[in-house]
Design a protein that fits this description.
Elements: H1 3-16, H2 19-26, H3 30-44, E1 49-51, E2 56-58, H4 60-85, E3 92-98, H5 100-103, H6 106-117, E4 121-127, E5 141-145, E6 154-161, E7 163-168, H7 169-174, E8 189-192, E9 200-205, E10 208-213, E11 218-220, H8 223-231, E12 236-240, H9 245-249, E13 253-256, E14 265-271, H10 279-291
Parallel strand pairs: 3-4, 3-5, 8-11, 8-12
Antiparallel strand pairs: 1-2, 5-14, 6-14, 7-12, 7-13, 9-10
Length: 296
């Protein structure tokens, strides 16, 4: 038997804390479960379970191994659900949580397209910068920008993007264009406070990260406010590229130091794992992956 199948058996045994219940769940004999757990422990070279005639508990190694198994089993269940649901027309209600920067930009354009393609799915879009507990708030999918997604959920990468440091052409008619990142300290910088870097802007210079601390007359967590000040020729800002996709294409803003902005941030779709993932979740994720090219 493969180690993946043995991990699944261990997952059920550890969850139930009982060989008989795990065997019943898996549709196999208790003896078979016991044999596979012994084989797994031998293969790993560690003891995963403390076993007596009346009690079963996890060793320290077993606790750590269960965390890894839990994630792998959820991924497997999610993949199986996706294949099964691929021939089912999605329906039902879908609650999505996303930061305002996304809701005000590419999601605003994509949502009508999604509902046109899947008319039997109704949507609730929660626009919030607050990271919320999915189960407590009844959220089906959360879109999050992070390099460390919560391991308690399933996380799928939708795309990656970069931040852009830029200003308008009119701004540079009044102020000299900075030749290198250090020159930013002499400019009015518009701070997007929802960006974890705040006013400490990172640049890749000679293979190393250089942090430039900037200052200015505007700080806001609202990307629309920062963008409006940018387009009013008020200063230089650092925003996600998807916020400025149209302005970058029509060259109404000028991107600076593009060779020093190589750090890519992943955009994740995060949802609760389980044996049966609703088709509406799989189709929404697939739709985002297929239709985000215009913004990134």
């Amino acid at each position: 038997m493969s180690e993946l199948n043995q991990m699944e058996i261990f997952y059920f045994v550890a969850t139930w804390k009982n060989f008989s219940k795990a065997a019943l769940d898996l549709g196999v004999s208790k003896g078979y479960v016991s044999t596979q757990i012994t084989a797994l422990e031998k293969s790993l070279g560690v003891k995963l379970l403390y076993r007596t005639t009346r009690h079963l508990s996890l060793t320290e190694e077993g606790v750590n191994f269960l965390e890894s198994c839990n994630k792998i089993i959820r991924e497997k269940q999610s993949a199986i659900s996706f294949i099964k649901d691929s021939k089912i027309e999605p329906s039902g209600h879908l609650k999505i949580s996303a930061p305002p920067s996304m809701c005000n930009t590419f999601l605003a354009e994509l949502m009508p397209q999604f509902q046109k393609k899947y008319p039997k799915i109704s949507l609730t879009v929660d626009s919030s910068s607050t990271v919320k507990n999915l189960e407590q708030h009844g959220i089906d999918i959360a879109l999050r920008i992070t390099s460390t997604p919560d391991e308690n959920y399933i996380a799928r990468v939708i795309t990656t993007f970069r931040f852009v440091v830029c200003a308008t052409q009119k701004y540079f008619k009044k102020h000299s264009m900075p030749k290198n990142p250090d020159d930013l300290i002499h400019h009015n910088c518009l701070i997007y406070a929802a960006d974890p870097t705040q006013n400490r802007w990172p640049f890749q210079v000679d293979g190393k990260t250089q942090i430039i601390t900037v200052n200015g007359n505007l700080i806001s967590e609202n990307n629309s406010i920062v963008k409006s000040a940018l387009l009013a020729d008020q200063g230089i800002t650092r925003l996600p590229q998807y916020v400025l996709s149209n302005e970058l294409k029509n060259e109404s803003v000028i991107a600076l130091f593009t060779e020093n902005m190589s750090i890519e941030m992943p955009l994740y779709a995060i949802y609760v794992g389980g044996i049966n993932i609703p088709a509406k979740i799989h189709w929404f994720i697939s739709f985002l992956k297929e239709n985000n090219h215009f913004a990134f």
